[in-house]
Amino acid sequence: MIATVLTDDLNLVGRDAESQRLDTVLGRLGNGGGALVFRGEPGIGKSALLDRARQRARAMGARV
User: Fold this and answer.
1) Per-residue DSSP letters for 31-51?
2) pLDDT band at residue 51 under the 50/70/90 scheme
3) Tens digits of per-residue pLDDT, 2-49?
4) I need a labelling partner for 8 at 20 to 30 A (CA). Which of 39, 47, 49, 60 fits?
5) How many CB atoms lie within 10 A of CB 48?
6) 27: which residues sit within 8 A by CB, 6+ positions away?
7) For the whole model, what pTM was predicted?
8) Which are the contacts of 55, defined by CB distance < 8 A and separation ≥ 6?
9) Would the CA dihedral through 58, 28, 18, 42 be positive or negative?
Protein backbone atom coordinates (compact mmCIF):
# COMPACT_ATOMS: atom_id res chain seq x y z
CA MET A 1 0.00 0.00 0.00
CA ILE A 2 1.31 3.45 -0.90
CA ALA A 3 0.06 6.48 1.02
CA THR A 4 -0.66 9.60 -0.98
CA VAL A 5 -0.79 13.09 0.46
CA LEU A 6 -3.39 15.25 -1.23
CA THR A 7 -2.54 18.58 0.38
CA ASP A 8 0.62 20.65 0.49
CA ASP A 9 0.45 21.21 4.25
CA LEU A 10 -1.06 18.64 6.54
CA ASN A 11 -3.28 19.95 9.29
CA LEU A 12 -2.72 17.41 12.06
CA VAL A 13 -5.33 17.77 14.78
CA GLY A 14 -3.91 17.36 18.27
CA ARG A 15 -0.31 17.08 17.05
CA ASP A 16 1.03 20.55 17.84
CA ALA A 17 3.76 19.27 20.19
CA GLU A 18 4.91 16.64 17.71
CA SER A 19 4.85 19.16 14.85
CA GLN A 20 6.99 21.57 16.88
CA ARG A 21 9.49 18.78 17.62
CA LEU A 22 9.63 17.93 13.93
CA ASP A 23 10.32 21.56 13.06
CA THR A 24 13.10 21.69 15.67
CA VAL A 25 14.78 18.54 14.34
CA LEU A 26 14.38 19.60 10.72
CA GLY A 27 15.82 23.02 11.56
CA ARG A 28 19.05 21.25 12.53
CA LEU A 29 19.47 19.60 9.12
CA GLY A 30 21.97 22.23 8.02
CA ASN A 31 24.30 21.10 10.82
CA GLY A 32 25.15 17.78 9.22
CA GLY A 33 22.04 15.74 8.59
CA GLY A 34 20.25 13.38 10.89
CA ALA A 35 17.48 10.85 11.11
CA LEU A 36 13.96 10.62 12.46
CA VAL A 37 12.46 7.50 14.03
CA PHE A 38 8.70 7.12 14.31
CA ARG A 39 7.32 4.42 16.55
CA GLY A 40 4.02 3.68 18.22
CA GLU A 41 0.88 1.65 18.11
CA PRO A 42 -0.91 1.06 14.80
CA GLY A 43 -3.32 3.79 13.78
CA ILE A 44 -1.97 6.68 15.87
CA GLY A 45 -0.81 8.79 12.94
CA LYS A 46 2.83 7.88 12.37
CA SER A 47 2.39 7.98 8.60
CA ALA A 48 0.76 11.40 8.76
CA LEU A 49 3.63 12.76 10.87
CA LEU A 50 6.12 11.20 8.47
CA ASP A 51 4.36 12.86 5.53
CA ARG A 52 4.54 16.20 7.34
CA ALA A 53 8.25 15.72 8.03
CA ARG A 54 8.87 14.84 4.38
CA GLN A 55 6.99 17.91 3.17
CA ARG A 56 8.82 20.23 5.56
CA ALA A 57 12.23 18.75 4.77
CA ARG A 58 11.70 19.07 1.02
CA ALA A 59 10.50 22.66 1.46
CA MET A 60 13.82 23.34 3.22
CA GLY A 61 15.74 21.87 0.28
CA ALA A 62 16.66 18.58 1.95
CA ARG A 63 16.96 15.42 -0.07
CA VAL A 64 14.37 12.94 1.21
Assistant:
1) GT--------STTSSHHHHHH
2) very high
3) 554 444 456 778 888 988 988 888 888 777 777 788 899 999 999 999
4) 39
5) 18
6) none
7) 0.68
8) 5, 8, 9, 10
9) positive
